[in-house]
Amino acid sequence: MTNHRADTQINYLQLSLTLVYNNECWRVGTKAPQLNFEWDDEKAKANLKKHGVSFDEATTVFIDPFSMTNYDPDHSVDEQRYIDIGNSDDGHVLVVAYTERGANIRLISCRKATPSERKLYEKSK
Q1: Nearest CA-CA partner of 41 in 60, 23, 22, 54
Q2: Of 41, 68, 73, 93, which sits 20 to 30 A from 23 (CA to CA)?
Q3: Radius of gyration of the chain (CA)
């Protein structure tokens, strides 16, 4: 299993607000002044094959000023996981699952948003 650290480092100003939708609390905005990404190469290949979305493209969701973050306690008891919905540089609205490992964002999976997820994202803009 090979870990990949993306060459991508993203710098930007953080602005955020909280949106409550269907009794779920989402933070809308950006994440941090500098972002470093990592992932498992085999997982990235499997994700691309299954969902048609690369982890490289998924990293660009994190610079979308309208991206939405939701805590995801249902998918891991060992680590805190999060789900972002945001627009990629390729123009796709993506759903990205990740965790934080130290100063890095470790990507777990990504896929194109469903119509209802896309609608939620569009309402947040």
Answers
A1: 54
A2: 93
A3: 14
How many residues make up the chain in this entry? 125
Tell me how many domains the chain contains.
1
* Contact yes or no for 7/29 (Cβ under 8 A): no
Q: Which domain holds residue 54?
A: 3-124
Nearest Cα residue to 95 out of 50, 46, 62? 62
Instruction: Quick: pLDDT tens for 17-75.
Output: 555 555 555 555 544 457 889 999 999 999 999 999 999 999 999 989 899 999 887 87
Cα distance from N-terminal residue to C-terminal residue, the chain: 38
Residue 75, token pair as written in the block: 């998918």
Are 29 and 81 within 8 A, CB to CB?
no
